[in-house]
Recover the amino acids of this structure.
């Protein structure tokens, strides 16, 4: 019994047999299958991998089902924690949202992870390779609103379908560890963590800006706002301040930055740069600008506190600007200015934070009727409110220095405010432009006693002066804001808090967890969360005083679910604690994490924060959750990302039905390095299919060979060990699966060429080929291993070791020409004969493209330098 309920191995296998045309006795119902060869269009020799255009195909459907059922029956990939001395490898791909169908992005991600998992198993490691479902989220609730479908039923059906598709890919998951975040046995621990954070002041309630649809009377997530309007009713979305729940991620801001030093070897620098920008550490000074009291003709009791990274520009401030949400506005605005302020605020409700921050948006604002005093020169600065200043950044107030800040300059030019230059650029004797601010360092001018200093020295001295006068201090600030986790939705983890008039905010007792989502709620699509309308859920007695109280009806952001799931996989059935400390610390940090770069600044930062909280709770000993990170590129078709809206989606199930999972896997790994964008082409898929059939024919021919006991020739032995070395290196160090597959293709070329040279392909060479190919194409690898009569399972064979003696011999690079034009290169041992060199050159995929069906008139061989293949083609026909 798992998180998803009792699963019968036989039941799932029988269902798959019925759906795929496999009868109960194991025979194939041919009428229900689409043979891959029948569906193939005519193969073009100049495309794909350049293999034979007349392959003898193998029964891919029967073979793949056979091995998938055998692996399932044997629980072949179940991770049984090995002895402490056995090396461990935790391979994790970001778990999917159960939308109903997998797409090519899923195929790429999960195939990459599977190659690594299979490779490390064969290297002798105890491998943890789990899968689960990021099962809470907005699409399920939208389905409930639009179609009256129960969110849980919708989610469970999608999980079942996507599980079937993933199994069809032959991914070596430990299905015994399967989790779904919508299971109470999982989200119970979300609630437990929330309570622990609440007790430590890391979870708190405060006002926050949200997207509000006035027509639907509901809060919208960012993804529900399309071009400023509600996705459902197309009403303009406004901004409202509501009480929300936050996690104090800013308490870990500095550590999140500092611990990048632990990740520099294993994480892409691009991701670390994105995180540094997202966290946005700024070093500068906080400065107090006292507000002028017109009635007393003196400085009043109020002061505006600003943060600046450029104290050297203080003398250039000509006005102050507050964010529209700044709490001091109500105390500052004069009666004469209030009507303009109210009109401005009303207009601003239509703008999102992102819109307000847009660089090309006109800089609107209103004057409040008051002034503040610049502490460095005692000048009175008018106080404005402007939309481009955010409460989310700094203190929600700025000193405007238009000569040296482009946003301030644009606001100044629009509202006719003064500009004062105080930084002279080092390469210019005068202000460069009246429409472009100079934002770099330079020499101070118009800055009193500090004039003539360079920016760096002036920053230090001005800050020190502010401190000595009690008018400011050195400070560090971050762009990172606390994590708003409230969602006014049903399909999420209920927040385990009770609102009591007498006791305030009271956490649910841990013994009462989980707080389970009620069933039978009404989804109207308007008003509050459906939980707020469920009296049975909402009304409760206070856990502390037993008086009538109300449950919190907000649910948690689904990023909470994915912030610690990697630890739950280690101990998924534990119902006493989130996970056993000793077990989890034996596996963490995750050795290899795989997922899209789009998660660099939300999921990955949230997971790093959560891990550090778990460390401080004494649950884990490591500082970071993921030791290595691989961010794969997207899959495109026609140069655009695959999307239903674009009509350019290729269904993985169609490819698997026509060509098999091994073909889909091989192509998607070969077409591009994993971190690069991959362009989907059917020619490439067909090329992968031809290559696998070529491997099949090679083993078939081996089965009819007369003498398989003869030793391998030295030239072939060298190629075998060079291939082992290249494949091992490319998987282990750089994850360049495309070049690893290319190496196996060259080995196939060499093994195929030997009969033409009067020699037999060595049994050892083909065994090595099947082992090297098994992580990429696991089904055909297992089937051919069995057909060769070899003992055991190919996936349980030890990974071959390259003999250094065969790697140190001298080699030469031969240039290959076709009709005088360079078409490729091959590397061969120096002792390679002309016959061997010619054979390898003719088998080269690029050479086959340009030779095609032409006849060869002669081959010119220059030892250690060149092979020129001359065809019966006129010069005008040569491309």
């Amino acid at each position: 019994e798992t998180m998803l309920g009792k699963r019968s191995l036989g039941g799932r296998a029988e269902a798959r047999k019925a759906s795929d045309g496999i009868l109960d006795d194991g025979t194939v119902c041919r009428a229900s299958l689409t043979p891959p060869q029948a569906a193939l269009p005519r193969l073009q020799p100049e495309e794909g991998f350049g293999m034979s255009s007349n392959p003898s195909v193998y029964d891919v459907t029967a073979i793949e089902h056979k091995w998938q059922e055998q692996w399932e029956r044997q629980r072949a990939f179940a991770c049984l924690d090995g002895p402490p001395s056995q090396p461990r490898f935790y391979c994790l791909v970001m778990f999917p949202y159960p939308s109903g169908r997998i797409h090519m992005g899923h195929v790429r991600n999960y195939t990459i992870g599977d190659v690594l998992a299979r490779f490390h198993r064969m290297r002798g490691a105890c491998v943890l390779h789990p899968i689960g479902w990021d099962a809470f989220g907005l699409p399920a609730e939208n389905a409930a609103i639009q179609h009256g479908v129960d969110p849980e039923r919708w989610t469970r059906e999608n999980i079942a379908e996507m599980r079937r598709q993933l199994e069809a890919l032959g991914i070596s998951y430990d299905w015994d560890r399967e989790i779904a975040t919508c299971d109470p046995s999982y989200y119970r621990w979300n609630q437990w963590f929330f309570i622990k954070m609440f007790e430590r002041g890391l979870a708190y309630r405060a006002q926050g800006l949200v997207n509000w649809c006035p027509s639907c009377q509901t809060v919208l997530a960012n993804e529900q706002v399309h071009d400023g309007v509600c996705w459902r009713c197309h009403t303009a979305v406004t901004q409202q301040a509501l009480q929300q729940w936050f996690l104090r991620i800013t308490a870990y801001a500095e550590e999140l930055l500092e611990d990048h030093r632990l990740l520099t070897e294993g994480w892409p620098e691009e991701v670390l740069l994105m995180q540094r920008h997202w966290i946005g550490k700024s070093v500068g000074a906080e400065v107090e600008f006292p507000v002028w009291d017109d009635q007393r003709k003196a400085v009043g009791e109020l002061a505006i506190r600003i943060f600046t990274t450029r104290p050297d520009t203080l003398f250039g401030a000509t006005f102050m600007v507050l964010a529209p949400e700044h709490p001091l506005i109500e105390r500052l605005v004069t009666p004469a200015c209030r009507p303009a302020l109210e009109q401005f605020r009303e207009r601003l409700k239509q703008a999102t934070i992102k819109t307000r921050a847009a660089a090309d948006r006109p800089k609107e604002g209103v004057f409040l009727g008051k002034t503040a005093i610049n502490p460095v020169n005692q000048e009175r600065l008018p106080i404005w409110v402007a939309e481009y200043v955010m409460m989310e950044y700094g203190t929600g107030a700025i000193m405007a220095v238009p000569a040296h800040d482009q946003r301030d300059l644009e606001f100044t030019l629009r509202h006719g405010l003064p500009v004062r230059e105080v930084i002279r650029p080092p390469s210019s004797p005068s202000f460069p432009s009246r429409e472009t601010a100079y934002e770099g360092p330079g020499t101070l001018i118009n800055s009193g006693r500090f004039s003539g200093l360079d920016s760096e020295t002036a920053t230090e001295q001005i800050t020190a002066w502010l401190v000595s006068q009690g008018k400011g201090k050195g400070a560090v600030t971050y762009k990172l804001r606390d994590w708003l986790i409230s969602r006014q939705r049903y399909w999420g983890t209920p927040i385990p808090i009770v609102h009591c008039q007498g006791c305030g905010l009271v956490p649910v007792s841990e013994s009462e967890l989980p707080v389970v989502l009620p069933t039978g709620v009404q989804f109207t699509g308007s008003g509050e969360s459906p939980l707020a309308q469920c009296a049975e859920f909402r009304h409760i007695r206070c856990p502390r005083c037993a008086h009538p109280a109300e449950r919190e009806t907000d649910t948690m952001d689904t990023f909470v679910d994915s912030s610690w799931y990697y630890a739950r996989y280690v101990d998924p059935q534990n119902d006493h604690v989130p996970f056993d400390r000793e077990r989890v610390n034996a596996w963490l940090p995750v050795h290899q994490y795989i997922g899209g770069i789009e998660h660099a600044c939300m999921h990955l930062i949230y997971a790093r924060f959560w891990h550090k909280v778990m460390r401080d709770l004494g649950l884990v000993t490591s500082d970071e959750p993921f030791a290595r990170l691989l961010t794969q590129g997207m899959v495109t078709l026609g140069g655009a990302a695959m999307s239903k809206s674009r009509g350019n989606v290729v269904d993985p199930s169609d490819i698997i039905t026509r060509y098999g999972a091994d073909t889909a896997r091989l192509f998607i790994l070969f077409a591009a390095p994993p971190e690069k964008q991959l362009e989907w082409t059917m020619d490439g898929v067909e090329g992968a299919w031809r290559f696998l059939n070529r491997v099949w024919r090679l083993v078939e021919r081996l089965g009819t060979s007369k003498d398989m006991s003869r030793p391998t020739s030295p030239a072939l032995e060298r190629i075998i060990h060079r291939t082992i070395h290249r494949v091992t290196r490319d998987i282990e160090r750089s994850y360049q699966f495309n070049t690893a597959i290319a190496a196996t293709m060259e080995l196939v070329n060499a093994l195929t060429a030997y009969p033409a040279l009067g020699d037999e392909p060595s049994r050892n060479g083909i065994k090595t080929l099947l082992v090297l190919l098994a992580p990429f194409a696991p089904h055909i690898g297992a089937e051919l291993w069995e057909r060769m009569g070899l003992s055991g399972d190919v996936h349980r064979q030890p990974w071959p070791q390259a003999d250094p003696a065969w790697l140190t011999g001298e080699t030469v690079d031969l240039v290959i020409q076709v009709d005088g034009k360079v078409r490729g290169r091959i590397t061969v041992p120096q002792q390679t004969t002309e016959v061997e060199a010619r054979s390898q050159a003719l088998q080269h995929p690029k050479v086959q493209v340009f030779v095609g069906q032409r006849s060869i008139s002669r081959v010119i061989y220059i030892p250690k330098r060149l092979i020129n293949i001359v065809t019966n083609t006129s010069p005008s026909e040569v491309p």
